[in-house]
Design goal:
Length: 371
Amino acid sequence: MTTEVDFYELLECDRTADAATIKSAYRKLAIKYHPDKNAGCQNSEAKFKAISEAYDCLKDPQKRAAYDRYGHAAFRQGAGSGGGQDFSGFSDIFESVFGEFMGGARGGGRQQRRGADLRYDMEIGLDEAFSGKATQITIDVSAPCDTCDGSGARAGTVAKPCATCAGHGKVRAQQGFFVVERTCPSCHGAGQVIADPCPSCRGEGRVDKTKTLSVNVPPGVDEGTRIRLTGEGEAGARGAPPGDLYIFLHVRRHPIFEREGTTLFARAPISFTTAALGGSIDIPGLDGEVHSIRIAPGTQGGRELRQRGGGMPVLQGRGRGDMVIRIEVETPTRLSARQRELLQEFRETETGDECPETSGFFAKMKSALGG
């Protein structure tokens, strides 16, 4: 009787380990026991195959869930319930029954499992979000094996049709009154088995590589904008189509502007003399131009002045939003003797009509208090 070693023990990690920890543990052990590094050592070769089998199971969320619940029995035909169920195919049974309604594979032919999609988070400045940018990113990703051209078979050999499913990738099982078609447990839907796997990729048809990709960020992107690079995700096993790479953009906080959609907001403190007499202020925009904002005489603090077309570009569209300047009137704190003298003269000439809102407020207060 063959002793089955726990997959987590093989990879020397806890059952609660996350996917990154499991991958790191596997890479460390794979380097240690790789046949090329231990030529002629049967124990190392056996250990390498065992940890590869363990990682193949635990890196797949569905396989891992089945293993956590049923252990090795989840991958043995007829195990678990006495009724001929193979728990490794429970998700495939669901897919075969409901897949047509959920966009899954149709028909009974051999299916290729597409590579996983990947996510990359990129931080950019608001000025880069305004004008767009062309940049490059470097990612670690699985790519087709150059040694076997992604086939998974050693050079000079070819994969053979699976004897269990006769190359169809699926088998049928009787379940009560129903005949359910599910993924073949021997070839996992590939329809082929590799007797002599490629030593570089261990029969997977893909290896880990570092890739540098060019990314074009269009003008007008916002926080959370997603850019899709088709086919730049994980390579599919044994020549299956690759997944996609999704780049999620995060825009850094700007020292001057705040953004709401295509509108840019900025606060501008002005002197009380400019607010009283009028004038203009210059605001440098993200477009590189200086926008002159006119201040009308008697402008109050909190007023918003709108500059049409001074905001962010419309993403994948035409035109630009507006720039809105919130006015804040600053009271002077450092006065010369002459300035203080002039202000004193101004106060002595006040009649109350200069600031109608102020005088009106105190008039209402006196009325409300009966005075």
